[in-house]
Design a protein that fits this description.
The protein is of the alpha/beta class and 256 residues long. 46% of the residues lie in helices and 7% in strands. α2 packs across α9 (227-254). The model has no long low-confidence stretch (mean pLDDT 94). The structure holds zinc ion. The site of zinc ion (ZN) has 6 residues, from α2.
Length: 256
Amino acid sequence: MANVRYETMLPREIRRARERMPVAYLPMGILEWHGEFLPVGNDALKAHALCCRMAEEIGGLVMPPFYWGDNRAEIAEVVFKPQYFGHLDHDHTVEMMEVYGLRKEDFEREAERSKAEGGWRLFKELLDHSLHQIESLGFKVIVVVAGHYPLIGPSRQVAESYDGRAKIMPMIGYDLVKDQGYKGDHAARWETSLLLALRPELVDTLGLKDAQRLVGIMGEDPRKASAEYGREGINAIIREARGRIAELLSQARRGE
Ligand SMILES: [Zn+2]
């Protein structure tokens, strides 16, 4: 399989791949609790590996992922909303802090600081800046993959106000295949299946079996996850993305 990771490639290799398909993928995630059996970088790891799969199958190159710049007031460590997630019967943040060996006040202070600094402002500036930079590297379509779902709103706003010439396609993954029955979640069956398919070595499969450790999960039981279900979902996403990317690329080439 050809290398598709931009930062690891030589200029002449980049040129060859870009001239074949001037599409860049920008994977984005954050650092956030994803149960005790998934790594905290899950969202970016998942988005990056998904981008690599798309680039290998559809064409284009993958940019290094985002981990920083998000609004820290919208993470599982500080957000506990049983009004939205009926199965949350006790405050999961207490157990998270025990496992981390950290204090909830520190996460809360950081959430307040983040809000006072403008919430998503920094992320939006960083994304807008990156899109311009990627366009200057010769790409005509930029697929922005929001591994952490709350990134999709600000990403769409940035895509709408983008004043460059490249076509921007913000997506999450499951949002492209919702009508086929796939549903997004937080560290539950879907996200766990994706990581089992994409980066199995990073999933603590023993920890996953321990019901006591299923803390801060939102969605269907992650013990029902499988690499096979993950692969099926990924293939469905790639099938759907392929047509959308081709359409944007022909618009860009026609100068629309
Ligand atoms: Zn996630």
